[in-house]
């Protein structure tokens, strides 16, 4: 490897080339059986992924967005309800809330983890909401809207402080739906149970995405809802299949949101390797941390002592983020932005009534975060080269950190590589 050898942001070709024989066998089996929708392949993957997440049930669906929407509806979020989440996430988190007929309410994120800030969540619940004495339900003080759920996002592969979330959920009678679309295999040390627990196993239900760039990625779109609640699991299986309790008997309004059999088979092959891939990602993160940690100009990811991140993304912070990204691009190193515009400032969600300055941490992060190459097939020499260029740029800069944005199109943006 030379100093001019490009470093891609993501390499899906190498992984699939190594597994080609196993993956092609899945397709061949499907051709011979003609079982393309449902059937043994889907059931087998659902059983195995539920076991991986340590939940009782898994329902495969067509995408992570479907998983989020179906999980909200099945758990009991009704049209008009409020659902609390964060502005520092991909748009699908809010899309799912709105598509379920609910209304998103934002709380800001923690500076270190980039995940939901527990103090801000507690403050929101205490000052903006109240528990009705007659019904025991939580309502928003100003609008009178019921607030029924909190949707924490396990961003970049690190879990939210779920103990704190669950404590508040019990206090305020809230459902908890985990957005685990970037956290396949991530773990949280439950102080309540004195043991490590997998992403997806702590809330009422959780949503996963199997978009190709995920830690467990398919060869196209796919997703899953995991839960240990039989009622939620049953409702999700009806929602994904036109609301059918059984063929031709439509008990609820539903959708077309199935996980295809071929995709399920491909995912099942990959699932056997996921723990190993996640361990490699953790080693890559440690290597980055050793190399970048000496620079005071670069902020590296903070991993809480109660969390085991699976580093879906390796996201650093720089006051000169846009210039740094240009510098890396000029040297053949691809990078990404996850995410450059907080959701409360997106045009699509202007009707929610938020404005610049409402969530200062998310807004500050959006200007400073940069995702470096991170995938199991990354080589230590590539990590060293990326780190060397980041440090070289950061230590050579002087003067105020004001700059023009980088040219569009050269970096892998979150919406292109890592949608939910």
Explain this structure to me?
There is one protein chain. The protein folds into 2 domains: 13-271, Type I PLP-dependent aspartate aminotransferase-like (Major domain) (Aspartate Aminotransferase, domain 2), CATH 3.40.640; 274-417, Aspartate Aminotransferase, domain 1, CATH 3.90.1150. The strands form 5 sheets. It has a 7-stranded mixed β-sheet, with helices on both faces. A 3-stranded antiparallel β-sheet has the order 9-8-14, with no helix packed on it. Strands 4-5 form a two-stranded antiparallel ribbon. With 420 residues, the protein is of the alpha/beta class. The radius of gyration is 21 Å and the shape is globular. A hairpin with a 2-residue loop joins β12 and β13. The model is unreliable at 404-420 (pLDDT under 50). It has 14 helices and 16 strands. It has helices spanning 13-18, 20-33, 40-53, 64-75, 92-99, 118-127, 162-172, 230-239, 261-271, 274-292, 321-330, 360-368, 380-396, 414-417, and strands at 57-61, 82-85, 103-106, 129-131, 138-140, 147-150, 175-179, 187-190, 195-198, 205-209, 223-227, 244-246, 249-250, 307-308, 314-317, 369-372. The protein is 37% helix and 15% strand.
């Amino acid at each position: 490897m030379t100093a001019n050898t490009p470093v891609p942001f993501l390499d899906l070709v190498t992984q699939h080339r190594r597994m080609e024989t196993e993956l092609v066998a899945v397709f061949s089996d499907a051709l011979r059986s003609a079982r393309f929708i449902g059937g043994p392949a889907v059931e087998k993957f659902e059983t195995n992924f539920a076991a991986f997440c340590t939940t009782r049930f898994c329902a495969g669906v067509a995408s992570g967005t479907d998983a989020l929407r179906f999980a909200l509806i099945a758990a009991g979020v009704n049209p008009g309800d409020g659902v609390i989440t964060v502005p520092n996430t991909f748009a699908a988190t809010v899309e799912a809330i709105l598509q379920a007929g609910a209304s998103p309410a934002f709380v800001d994120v923690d500076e270190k983890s980039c995940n939901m800030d527990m103090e801000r969540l507690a403050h929101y619940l205490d000052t903006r909401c109240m528990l009705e004495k007659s019904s025991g339900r939580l309502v928003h003080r100003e609008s009178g809207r019921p607030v029924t759920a909190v949707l924490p996002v396990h961003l970049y592969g690190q879990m939210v402080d779920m103990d704190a979330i669950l404590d508040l959920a019990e206090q305020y009678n809230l459902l908890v739906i985990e957005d685990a679309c970037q956290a396949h295999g991530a773990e949280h040390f439950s102080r309540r149970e004195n043991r490590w627990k997998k992403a997806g196993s702590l809330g009422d239900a959780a949503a996963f995405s199997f978009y190709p760039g995920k830690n467990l990625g398919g060869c196209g779109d796919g997703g899953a809802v995991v839960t240990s609640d039989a009622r939620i699991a049953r409702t999700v299986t009806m929602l994904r299949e036109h609301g059918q309790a059984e063929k031709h008997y439509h008990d609820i309004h539903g959708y077309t949101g199935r996980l295809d059999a071929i995709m399920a088979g491909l995912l099942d092959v990959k699932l056997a390797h996921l723990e190993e891939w996640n361990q490699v990602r953790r080693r890559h993160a440690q290597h980055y941390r050793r190399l970048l940690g000496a620079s005071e100009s670069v902020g590296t990811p903070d991993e809480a002592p109660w969390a085991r991140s699976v580093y879906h993304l390796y996201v650093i912070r720089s006051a000169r983020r846009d210039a740094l990204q240009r510098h890396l691009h000029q040297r053949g190193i691809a990078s990404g932005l996850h995410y450059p515009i907080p959701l409360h400032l997106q045009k699509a969600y202007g009707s929610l009534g938020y404005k610049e300055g409402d969530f200062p941490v998310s807004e500050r992060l959006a200007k400073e975060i940069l995702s470096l190459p991170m995938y199991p097939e990354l080589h230590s020499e590539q990590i060293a080269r990326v780190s060397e260029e980041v440090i070289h740029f950061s230590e050579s800069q002087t003067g105020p950190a004001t700059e023009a944005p980088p040219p569009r199109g050269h970096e892998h943006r979150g919406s292109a590589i890592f949608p939910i």
